[in-house]
Amino acid sequence: MLPDPAQEERARALGREIRCMVCQNQSIEDSEASLARDLRLIVRERIAAGDSDAGVIEFLHARYGDFVLLKPPFAWSTAALWATPLIAVLGGLGLIVGLRRRAAATPPPAPLTEDERKRLAALGLPPQDGSRA
């Protein structure tokens, strides 16, 4: 922990923006992995040395790439990452609309003929179209 409470709060805020590369879905502030502990120490060392928040992020980004950021910047290399949720939602909505249209366009089944009703009655089965034999 840093002796200055303001610097410690900055370090914790920055730690919530940096991904633990072992846990992958946790920030370094939430992770108990040894790599996360090492990254927390680096963040605090950089802040104690006088780096700005952007300077600390740039330092880690230069070392570890976009993956170290919980919110990677938008770039052509990350466009698929950012577009995937939108594509999934639009695809799901398209599927729902398509299935509803198909269900609405499907004609009801033709009623049973008299011969079909007799065969069902001979088998001891009730009529399948809702009519009484």
What does this molecule look like?
The protein is mainly α. It folds into two domains: 5-68, Helicase, Ruva Protein, domain 3 (Orthogonal Bundle); 75-105. Helix content is 56%, strand content 0%. It is built from five helices and no strands. It has helices at residues 5-15, 34-48, 53-64, 79-105, 114-123. The radius of gyration is 31 Å and the shape is rod-shaped. The chain starts with a helix and ends in a 10-residue tail after the last helix.
- Using the coordinates shown, work out and report the CATH topology of the largest domain: Helicase, Ruva Protein, domain 3
Number of strands: 0
Could you state the order of secondary-structure elements as H and E? HHHHH
**First CA to last CA: what distance?**
84 Å
- How many helix segments? 5
Proportion of strand residues:
under 5%
The name of the CATH superfamily of the largest domain reads Cytochrome C biogenesis protein
CATH class of the largest domain: Mainly Alpha
User: What number of domains?
Assistant: 2
Q: Which blocks of ≥5 consecutive residues have pLDDT under 50?
A: none
Please give the largest β-sheet: none
- From the coordinates shown, what is the CATH architecture of the largest domain? Orthogonal Bundle
Measured as a percent range, the helix fraction is 55-70%
**Computed Rg:** 31 Å
Mean pLDDT: 86
- What is the 3D shape? rod-shaped
